[in-house]
Q: What sequence folds into this?
């Protein structure tokens, strides 16, 4: 009952954030004007503004939910409270693919580049999983170490490519921050298969993640196939975080901070953590986007910067209060 009420309150908060995102933006618009457009009164300029706000709201909901659920799954399969999708090299893999495509094709980071970023992110995860799974240091430790090594190598490659190619650097420096603006609903449609697949796998894994949280030996005694659960968890997190990164660029702290908040509210049961994380992740990213649009009118602060500014103090608070250990 308690968790059900918490989830219901989170859904109400998400609904309020969605409405606020349509009414608030870089241009001050009277609520009455927005209502008129929503009820069918023609105003070409306001219609264009609302279309843009609607698209970025949908993107914020999908990306925030994907990153938050990916964070819950990664922390569950690694039993590492500081785990996030970046451990698998998703962000740096997508970035390396984008840089490579821009360098060799001469094109910028347009709408079609979402496929390039998605392919690069998934390829990096497969590489990390293949190498880390065969290491002699244990499956989880080997995976984390391999992810760190691959991320370091690809980061050096990205720096080399951007520093030697000014055109690539000019395009990459805007994409790498992470922003919801300038993305239409076609981008959401493009990444939706990966998002849906990742969410379905994550939901199906929830009972097994509960068993895994008790320790590998206990999980095996309960009939859990640990290797299969970890492989499926890596796949789910890879699909979710790769699709999110490909859609809007790297977004910091959502996948790290939201799972801590979710555990503090819903407890250790992943059957509640996953849906609650999806709702809270979407809400947090939408609110961060609203803040970025409002505080710098008529310009805007990219949402990747806002989430970093919000997420860093929250993570410090979580560590001080011991949420990371729960």
A:
């Amino acid at each position: 009952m308690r968790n059900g009420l918490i989830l219901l309150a989170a859904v109400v908060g998400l609904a309020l954030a969605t409405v606020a995102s349509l009414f608030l933006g870089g241009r001050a618009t009277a609520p009455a004007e927005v209502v008129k457009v929503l009820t069918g009164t023609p105003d070409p300029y306001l219609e264009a503004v609302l279309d843009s706000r609607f698209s970025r709201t949908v993107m914020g909901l999908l990306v925030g939910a994907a990153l938050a659920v990916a964070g819950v799954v990664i922390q569950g399969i690694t039993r590492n409270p500081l785990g996030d999708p970046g451990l698998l090299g998703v962000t740096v893999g997508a970035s390396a693919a984008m840089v490579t495509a821009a360098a060799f094709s001469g094109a910028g980071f347009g709408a079609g580049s979402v496929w390039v970023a998605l392919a690069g992110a998934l390829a990096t995860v497969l590489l990390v999983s293949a190498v880390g799974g065969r290491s002699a240091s244990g499956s989880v430790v080997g995976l984390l170490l391999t992810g760190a090594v691959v991320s370091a190598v690809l980061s050096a490659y990205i720096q080399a490519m951007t520093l030697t190619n000014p055109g690539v650097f000019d395009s990459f420096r805007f994409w790498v921050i992470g922003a919801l603006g300038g993305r239409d609903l076609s981008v959401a449609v493009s990444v939706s298969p990966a998002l849906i697949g990742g969410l379905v796998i994550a939901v199906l894994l929830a009972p097994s993640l509960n068993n895994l949280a008790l320790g590998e030996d206990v999980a095996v005694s309960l009939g859990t196939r640990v290797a299969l659960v970890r492989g499926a968890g890596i796949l789910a997190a890879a699909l979710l975080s790769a699709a999110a990164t490909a859609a809007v660029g790297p977004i910091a702290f959502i996948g790290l901070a939201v799972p801590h908040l979710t555990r503090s509210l819903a407890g250790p049961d992943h059957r509640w953590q996953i849906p609650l994380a999806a709702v809270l992740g979407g809400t947090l990213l939408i609110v961060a986007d609203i803040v970025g649009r409002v505080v710098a009118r008529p310009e805007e602060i990219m949402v990747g910067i806002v989430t970093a500014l919000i997420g860093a103090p929250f993570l410090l608070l979580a560590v001080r209060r011991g949420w990371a250990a729960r």
In short: The chain has one domain: 2-284. Residues 2-284 form a domain with the ABC transporter involved in vitamin B12 uptake, BtuC fold (CATH 1.10.3470.10). The chain has 13 helices and no strands. The CA atoms of residues 194 and 262 lie 23 Å apart.
